[in-house]
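Self-study notes.
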Amino acid sequence: MMKPFLLTLALAVICSTATFGQTEKGSKMLGGTGNLGFSDGISVTVQPSIGFFVADNFAIGSALGLYYYNRDDIRQNGIAIQPFIRYYIGESMPIRPFVEASGGYMTSKTKYSYSGNSFEQKYNNGFFGAGVGAAYFLTNQVGLEAMLYYRTSEDRGLINYQGNSRLGISFGFQIYLPGSSAK
């Protein structure tokens, strides 16, 4: 009961502090994305991220991806490190489009169970992705975002190497913290 109150209070304090340009050099962004899927089993993905604005509108950062999937006969979990670069287009306004490029490495383990037999297989994937999106700023320091992305990877660990490419959409939020050089 106390945790939701403290979280709400913390967000209120962050949102009510003095406002600065969201994407100025020296600012930071903290946030992430997540999704929950039920189409063929249950899948959960959580991806916290941190970024630093090295120039106005231009951030570099990294995300840590955590993935879990469970179906009657398959259970999979994985972890990924995903450095990214992001550029925001336009001036300060409630909706800011951006472009992003990322790459990284994922390792995962899959356990298969059939007719009382089971085995595990490990996968190691390098991947690259790019996307276009928009951040909707609820305040100068809190934004909701959506991004349409394309990702390609090579799955190592399979008997035959195979590529995996997909188009997707992600939703998330960011908290923008002014840096010492933000005015």
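Second protein, same conventions, sequence then structure:
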Amino acid sequence: MANSYEPYLLEVKRALSSALCLYDLPCEHVERYSRPEVEFDDSPGLMLPPIAICRNEREKCLIERSVNSVRFSIQVKQDNALEVLVLRLPSMLVNTKSLHLDAHEASDKA
């Protein structure tokens, strides 16, 4: 069973490796300000084509890219209550961490 996931996971890894080659790009609308272009639709020239990788209808990922940011969405199968619980805990942790992250503090460290 583990071997059936290998091509899918390798493709996701390859796509993420190429998508995470980012650089700092100042905002075209506000001087001395850098913002994640993937979150805004006002500069379509800075957006790169999204990458969708599907193993089946219940297991897929979407990578939305721009020149200075990436949004990664993943859908994983949840057949029983244990899988739902195992997937809910890490996603709650990531969401909690992202809500408490100060954007200015994070960009100053980069």
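Instructor comment on the second fold: Residues 43 and 76 are 31 Å apart (CA to CA).
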